[in-house]
Amino acid sequence: MALRYEYAVETEDLAKYYVMGPVTVKALDGVSVRIRRSEYLSIMGPSGSGKTTFFNMIGGLDRPTRGKVFIDEVDIASLDAYELAWLRAKKIGYVFQTFNLIPVLTAMENVMLPMIFTGVDRDERIKKAREMLTRVGLGERLHHKPGELSGGQQQRVAIARALVNDPVIVLADEPTGNLDLHTGLEIINLLKTLNTEKRVTIINATHDLKMIDVSDRIFWIRDGKIERIETRAEVAVKEVE
Amino acid sequence: MTREEGVKFPLSEAFSFSLESIKRRLSRALVTMASIIVGISFLTFLLTTGRIVSSLQQQSGTIVEAYQIWVAIIALLICAVGIVNTMLISVAERYKEIGTIKCLGAMNRHVLTIFLIEGFLLGLMGGVIGSITGWGVAAIWQYLLPIMRQEPAQIQALIVAAKLWLEFDIKDPLILLSNPLVDIGLSVFIALISSIVPAYIAAKLSPTEALRYEA
């Protein structure tokens, strides 16, 4: 087996500026971080702090104004459109606040979709999708369309879809943002279990404080900069004080 | 990374994806198709009627006035504009879906393919329905009019119309145009041309922009 890199994601002086007429908005302004493999990380900050921009940069969804992003030690700026699509399909799983399932497809078909892009053959696709949906507790809902599922169930389908190609990292943008307290907690626990089980790196952009309990580290972002980085132990100590 | 392990999206998968989208959004598809059906059936009606009349009167050539052809052409142009419009709305409705499949590994050309196949399928179905409708209306028209005028030619008209159905005379471009296969081809062509711009807009969407969009 090939040597596994220690870091799943590295950024170097990452910046993204938006020019809006005479004003330049510094959505992200010089962020250098290293995210270890199989880490459970939360990026916290108020809305407009730059966490979604950061999320888009490390997801290969948007190009930075300055700086570099490495995923599996590969500089993603060096990838062409074809390789970038492969990175998104194979190495990164995405989970969104609004679930973003394809409404015309069933739960099974939604989970099978990323495997079409990575060229998994049909029988294998069906087998893996069924396994993954059963794993997230939806074994009884395989052929339901998103409209026939509750918010929590839809997010479970989305998590199954994100993990089915065995990605290196899962990027979750406010995964609990559209869910009630209880369902949100279930989703957080599911992500944590999968993180431990599959050793997959999970990066959450969130302002849900429930995330702190399960996160290995928390990045606090404000005005496009990392304000501080804390481990769970440090946060816990502060709570005691 | 080798080329073998790159992203794939076989045409068969694109086809079933497009077909599912059409089935799920049937009302929108029917609106798009309706404009094709009206345009194509109008053209077929004009040409078939002209040919029935000319063969009943034992004339060579066809009795289709030039202005009638122009009316049909304008009808088809309007139908093309209708398709562009409904396809653009269809793209706008599916911004999030486009952004999502791009996150899952779809490339621009895959998105382009999905929307072009949708246009193709709409053109095909619209063409089939339109040419049958146009021919049927022409046949009935020519059959009923003599009955109302109490003329004996009604049965003859129907026989002529039936014979015209699959006649394929390459020498006469007008006869060629009223052949159902050519009508369907024309319909597919118009639908594909009209889908190019909407499909291109969909393909060029950046995933972040598409996902930020709130429907």
Draw up the topology in text.
The complex is a heterodimer of chains A (241) and B (215).
Chain A: E1 7-20, E2 23-31, E3 34-36, E4 40-44, H1 51-58, E5 66-71, E6 74-75, H2 81-91, E7 92-95, H3 107-117, H4 122-135, H5 151-163, E8 169-173, H6 181-198, E9 201-206, E10 217-222, E11 225-231, H7 232-240
Parallel strand pairs in A: 4-9, 4-10, 7-8, 8-9
Antiparallel strand pairs in A: 1-2, 1-3, 1-5, 5-6, 10-11
Chain B: H1 11-24, H2 26-56, H3 66-93, H4 95-103, H5 108-148, H6 154-164, H7 173-177, H8 180-204, H9 207-212
Helix pairs in contact in B: 1-5, 2-3, 2-5, 2-6, 2-8, 3-8, 5-6, 5-8
The biggest sheet of chain A, with number of strands, parallel, antiparallel or mixed sense and barrel status, is: 6 strands, mixed
Oligomer: heterodimer
Q: How many separate helices of chain A? A: 7
Kindly name the structural category of chain B: mainly alpha
Give the mean pLDDT of chain B.
Answer: 81
Rough outline of chain B: elongated
- Fraction of helical residues of chain A: 25-40%
| CATH architecture annotation name of chain A | 3-Layer(aba) Sandwich
Kindly give the count of domains of chain B. Answer: 1
Secondary structure: helix percent of chain B:
over 70%
SS elements, strand count of chain B: 0
Nearest-integer average pLDDT of chain A: 90
Reported by name, the CATH topology of chain A is Rossmann fold
Query: Helix and strand string of chain A, N-terminal first?
Result: EEEEHEEHEHHHEHEEEH
> What is the strand content of chain B?
under 5%
Form type of chain A: globular
Strand content of chain A: 25-35%
Rg from alpha-carbon coordinates of chain B: 22 Å
- Which regions of chain B contain 5 or more consecutive residues with pLDDT less than 50? none
Q: Mind telling me the CATH class of chain A?
A: Alpha Beta
Tally of DSSP helical segments of chain B = 9
